[in-house]
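quick one before i forget lol
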Amino acid sequence: MDISIAEAHNHLSSLLKRVGDGPILITRRGKTVGVLISPEEYEKLSRIGAYIQLLEISRELKEGSSAEEIYRASREELEERS
């Protein structure tokens, strides 16, 4: 479902009741600028993201990177995002 920002603003309560039916794309001038998803879908995506990070760390360790190197690189990446 696609809905404009103005419509989302005016109907947020009813939209939140419908997120269980699937994602709701919020658009501005026809371009998607946000997505409403259910808490369950959010948790699922968070778990998948964490699993992918673990796979990447495992791969780096197998390729010879030390845990300390991975920690430093991860820390630097987090600091750059802030």
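fyi Residues 41-81 form one domain.
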